[in-house]
Specification:
Blueprint (H helix, E strand, L loop, with lengths): L2 H33 L14 H12 L53 H4 L3 H9 L1 H4 L12 E5 L21 E5 L1 H12 L15
Antiparallel strand pairs: 1-2
This protein binds heme C.
Heme C (HEC) binds next to helix 3 and helix 6.
Pfam families: FixO
Keywords: Heme, Iron, Membrane, Metal-binding, Transmembrane, Transmembrane helix
Protein name: Cbb3-type cytochrome c oxidase subunit II
Length: about 210
Amino acid sequence: MGLKMIVRQFIWMLGILSCFILGWIVYVIVPNQVLDTPPRGEETPPPDFGLVKTGQKIYGANGCAGCHTQVVRPANMGSDIARGWGSRRTLPVDYYHERNPFLGIVRMGSDLSNVGTRRKDPHWFYILLYNPDKIFPGTIMPPYRYLFRKVRAEGKRNPEALPQELTPGVPSELQVLPSPEAIALVAYLLSLDRTYPIETRAKNHE
Ligand code: HEC
């Protein structure tokens, strides 16, 4: 093997090594510097617990994140804030307590980062989940009727039951009630509020 060959192989190895190092810097070191704001005290969002935590799992299990994002983009990178989906961009610290943040990749429906600030009535959510078409005529959002159960009315209507005119095809002696899964899912949706103020190193949360 000539000296020229050794030098050429050495340059190859160096090239391959620098590709790895460059990738590591660009994908690990730089994002860590820019994004990883260490939370300080009350700057961290309130942790989820109880029903809300269960609801988050149901949100994941039903593939809601396949159509809905939970990321509000900064004002200079999209119209999210102008559309009223949040008062500020979301930041990594917003997901501080979440094991599986549902950022989502496709936005068929609206961003749900702050849906709990726009919609406050649990019954609105139950109607949406049972029959999305009633709220958004012609929508592609599928109904989630298996999150509801039919219970015999026993002469008295449960105040939690869906209005009869919204449950076509269900005999009048039955009433449609949200299941524990639907109740937890709606508790989670109502909890979605990432509008609390946050101090960041980057200072770019408008
Ligand atoms: C196939 C896509 C799709 C899936 C899956 C889906 N949605 Fe939707 N969703 C939509 C669309 C689209 C809209 C907006 C309504 C419209 O304009 O058609 C919407 C609207 C909503 C809204 C109202 C948001 C607002 O800003 O008022 C909520 C809340 C919601 N969906 C929750 C859910 C939940 C919870 C799940 C899972 C159980 C889910 N969606 C699954 C497509 C979807």
